[in-house]
Write a sequence for this structure.
């Protein structure tokens, strides 16, 4: 009789430990992340604004060339495709196997010239996954440029172009980003001496 009770105690103790581990894990996954807010627009008198107009095809090539150079040591291999939406296409390794992933974003130009990408869909292979979980995972485990911040709770990515480091301290602002009309205009703030 005493042996039965010991096994019951051990069983329920082990069950309790497993439940606590699962609850802690779920708590960490769904815990709120720090909130990301857009920067205020700064007007500078020591820069000259130049307007640049382009199309989806050319901007796609520029973005992918930039990503290729910046993300060469990143385990997440991806490229951008501009259609009616901003699409992030790539592959992730799951259990040693490469699986296709597609993230779709709706772009919005912020008042300060930065870009906000609102997550619309995420698929891995043929399976749609919870966007919040995936954005939190990417934010926590992949090296993104300093000027790209992910807010998993709002399912948004802030692209702080004003914080992007460019040669000769040139800064970029988005003026128009209308993919359906293929109207893409940017302001370059070029420093003057």
């Amino acid at each position: 009789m005493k042996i039965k009770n010991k096994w019951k105690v051990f069983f329920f103790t082990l069950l309790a430990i497993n439940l606590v581990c699962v609850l802690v894990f779920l708590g960490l996954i769904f815990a709120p992340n720090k909130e990301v807010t857009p920067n205020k627009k700064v007007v500078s008198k020591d820069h000259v604004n130049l307007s640049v107009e382009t199309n989806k095809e050319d901007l796609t090539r520029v973005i992918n060339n930039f990503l290729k150079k910046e993300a060469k040591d990143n385990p997440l291999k991806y490229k951008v495709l501009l259609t009616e939406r901003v699409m992030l296409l790539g592959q992730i390794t799951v259990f040693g196997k490469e699986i296709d992933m597609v993230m779709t974003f709706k772009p919005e130009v912020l008042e300060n010239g930065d870009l906000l990408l609102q997550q619309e869909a995420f698929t891995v292979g043929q399976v749609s996954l919870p966007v919040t979980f995936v954005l939190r995972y990417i934010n926590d485990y992949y090296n993104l440029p300093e000027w790209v911040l992910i807010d998993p709770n709002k399912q948004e990515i802030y692209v702080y172009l004003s914080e992007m480091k460019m040669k000769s301290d040139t800064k970029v602002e988005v003026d128009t980003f209308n993919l359906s009309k293929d109207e893409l205009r940017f302001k370059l703030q070029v420093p003057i001496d």
